[in-house]
Amino acid sequence: MRKSRTVVVVGASRGLGLALAEEYCARNWHVIATSRGRSAGLDQLRERYPTSLEIETVDIADGASIRALARRLETVSLDALFVNAGICKANTLTPLEVDDKDFLDMMSTNALGPMRIVEALYDRVPERGVIAVMSSELGSIAHCTGFWELYSSSKAALNMLMKAFSARHADASRSLLLIAPGWVRTEMGGEDAALETGESIPLVVDVVEQSAGVPGLRFVNRHGEILPW
Ligand SMILES: NC(=O)c1ccc[n+]([C@@H]2O[C@H](COP(=O)([O-])OP(=O)(O)OC[C@H]3O[C@@H](n4cnc5c(N)ncnc54)[C@H](OP(=O)(O)O)[C@@H]3O)[C@@H](O)[C@H]2O)c1
């Protein structure tokens, strides 16, 4: 029987991250799902998948917390690393209106933090492995309409940092993905969102699975279609 593959899902306490952890468990992966604190959703998932699911802790806005996670995972080999965590604050405000802290929190959690996780866990992912980071259609500068401009700028910054990372690792053969899941009903996406998690996340995981062994960086949607930077 084939040895099960291992994925770390960062930011899996609820919403899309919890749905990712559930989807990987259902596909027989060994799943290391992280949260910042206790997550009822992850506790329930562990009752359903006691041998497949491990729960870890990390706050991606805290460098020491990221380094500690990397030390705890020092001996683990990851077929996939999926950095999902993100926040949206003051989405309708303009640069003049926003509280400095809200903007900086978004930059820290949506751009710097994910890339610190990628850097810290990069060596845990073998050459045919996949490193995926949850971006957004709103991170595309080419498609910008001004909607949620501050949040969008943090995802554009994430995309730029991932592009710079891939340039620094041009000789490596890992697959690097920035994935846009679509507009999905979660705490962040809100009630009016177009999709249920079940209409997005299985497609997102398909894209990650199909990317194993495909080197280089792509910015894609849940269907695997290339998005403009
Ligand atoms: N929903 C959408 O329509 C949509 C569309 C495009 C992109 N996205 C992106 O998809 C990802 C997930 O969004 P979502 O809709 O599921 O949002 P959500 O329901 O608000 O969940 C956000 C997740 O990120 C975690 N998180 C936030 N700050 C963190 C930190 N400092 N360290 C570790 N974990 C942290 C949260 O953990 P806690 O429970 O501890 O707060 C939670 O698990 C985000 O990157 C978001 O930008 C969402």
From TrEMBL:
Q: In its UniProt entry, what is this protein called?
A: SDR family NAD(P)-dependent oxidoreductase
Q: Which domain of life is it from?
A: Bacteria
Which Pfam families does the entry mention?
adh_short
Q: Which GO terms describe its molecular function?
A: oxidoreductase activity, acting on the CH-OH group of donors, NAD or NADP as acceptor
Report the InterPro entries cross-referenced here. NAD(P)-bd_dom_sf, Sc_DH/Rdtase_CS, SDR_enzymes, SDR_fam
